[in-house]
Amino acid sequence: MRKQEEPRREILSDRTFMIWMVLLGVAAAGIRFAVAFPHGGFMSDQQLFVDWMEQVRQRGLASVYIEGSSINYPPIFLLLMDLYRAAVGWFGIVPAAGELSFKGVLIVLDLILLAAALPLTRSAGRTRSRLFVLALLALNPALIFGSASWGQVDMLHSMLMAAMLLMLPSLPLLAGVLFALALLSKFQAVTLLAVLGIYFLRRLANRQGIRSLALFAAGFTSIMGVTAVFFAQAGGLQAMVKGAYLSAVGMYPQVTMNAMNIWYYFIGTSPTTPDTTRVFGVLTLRSAGFLLLALFVAFAAVYLWKSRLNASSLLKSAALVNFAFFMLPTEIHERYSVPALVLSIFVCLYDRKWRIPAILLSLSVTANLWMVQAGTIGIYTGLVVVYVNVALLLWMVGSLYRELRQNHRDRRTADDERDLTSVVHGKAQTSGID
């Protein structure tokens, strides 16, 4: 790993680091509760979740997809909400949309996930880079707003996706488990398939990845197998797959669902333009968006194929794929940028150049969420966010391209040094014989 990609080795003392961790924990909890109290949030989402919570209580998780209605999230969130409902029920609390009684489950999840970030970042030691990452996760306005104000759960699958990539090089069995849990939390985790595919192909090409792939597959299939059996024994497996993963596809056939991406006036399309509109008489706008995404995924694949297979390159390629997924296809919602944000924050453990972009992305995601929830989306204010997002997407591509070029130069220099050493060694042996 090159010097500029290493964490800053400015080591903090044990006591100083622990003080910072306590302060961050208190601040993270305090700010979330302070935001949750006065802001009702996005009531339609929360009312839907409370209704799902009640449906699970009445019918049970195994049967709720068969007998329930309007459930289009995977089962992990339903399970967590049911456990939360049962826990607060001991105190006579009934969760209600827009109230802390419901948002409590989201705040508790946030705090658990932030605590999980401590072991995930342990390899960086007590460095300022680790402290920066933990602080940006704990105090991030987008993550705070998304749960404590809006009332959504995007941080769950985002952190599982990041954890999976961090564990993949050293603990593939655990990585497989985490990937399964991410998919069972939100279908957007499927974007990591491209990264995983290149990772294992590269390792298999070097005849090093058979054991790693087998362990990953074992972890993944164990969780998915248990889930399939759980729903199948109640006759609800097909209903779960249809409701959680297929029912929402194509539900909003317009170019963007409040996502400040290229379809928000940037290329001349208003948000309500049907994505079935044809361009050049051949492609629909929907197909054009997927083609653009495919180009960026292909670039990320090339980057990963030519880079070292470590946590840094995995996080960078995944961050680009997920941000491209937010920026380029049609029918994208405003919250689909959260995984790219979380992945970009974790990149900062390894590459300081990503710090300012991660902060800017935090602000653009926050602005997008705020405008949607407050109903104050203006064409020109929205376009400011779009321009920032486009610049960040291009910066990610440029950063990965420059890294590829530097890696290529480093390899050529290393090859030249080896060739020179061989020549000198050969001449030395010849002189000895003479």
From TrEMBL:
The chain crosses the membrane at residues 17-37, 100-120, 132-153, 173-201, 213-232, 244-267, 279-305, 354-371, 377-401. Keywords: Membrane, Transmembrane, Transmembrane helix. Residues 412-434 are annotated as: Disordered. It comes from the Bacteria. This is DUF2029 domain-containing protein.
